[in-house]
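Handout, tutorial session.
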Amino acid sequence: MKKLMLFFCAALFTSGITFAQHKSVKKSKHTAAKTIAAPVPVKNAFAQHFADVADAKWSKRGADNWVAIFAKDDVKTTVEYTADGNWVATRSEYTAEKLPETVASTLKTKYPGATVKDGWKIERADVAAYYKVNIQDNGTDKAVLVNEAGTITE
């Protein structure tokens, strides 16, 4: 009986080692991103708002919306249009140093010990433009909304 038990344990041990070393190899496909051309009404609407931008990269988002991404003056901007060329939204990403002075001074006044991480200017057709600024105040991360006049909104 001892030999049978010893044999069983040895078989279990060796099979465990054998299967533990089996690695499955996943092959990843590296494909280049396709360049997508936006429809003419979308390009025309974009050209009216951002005539000086020539290097926008286009992609299609759900619900048939088209998105252009570009950088201007070290500010990364994303603009979204419907397939008909109607503007939906604009989101511009700012570093702490690039935030407008009205926004920065409001944050310094309201949160004097806070560290500004980054911020976004968000413009939509249904809401007045505002900034969403990520700060760290007393070890706590916060997102603060500030309108263009420099007033904190909740």
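The second record follows below. Compare its token runs with those of the first.
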Amino acid sequence: MIFDIRRPLPDEIDGYPVDLRFQTVLNVFEIMHKQDFSANEKMQFAVSLLFPGRRVPPVETVNRLFEQYISTGKKGTHSTRSFDFLQDGSYIYSSFRMDYGIDLFREKLHWMQFVSLFQGLSERTKMREVMSIRQRKLPTPDKYNGELIANLLELKAYYALEITQEERERNIQNSLANLARALRAKAR
């Protein structure tokens, strides 16, 4: 997603009007994470939210909307997610109030504005504190840092994100692959 401040925020793509208020996009994210619907049902519902007109856009237009305007484009350098727009709602809300004085229940921010402000949250906000805790690596244990490690583990458990079965399976596969690499390296 490229936010070009020289151009107006997009409200249409390929001649199709789009609803890119942050609340709408978060509703789409929520639908996409639900296990009760098929992929086709999720996409139909997402399209009905994002494209309020009667005309249904072609798949290429929908894909371009996600690629150009919705995707943050940052997969992250950390192996664990440091935030979730849905699960961290209260931290995001309080952080926007603290840093910008914005009440997210009253404001109708465009998704691109919302993401830009989210990415610019200061270190003093609760959201950035929680993200830091989730990203923090445990130090190598020694005789001096047992209490530090115990406190960090407690914080990580408290602020842990719920993960889906798919994410859990992916984490297990990654752990097994890492174990296999480590064993191969030791065998050499």
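Points raised in discussion: The CA atoms of residues 82 and 134 lie 5 Å apart.
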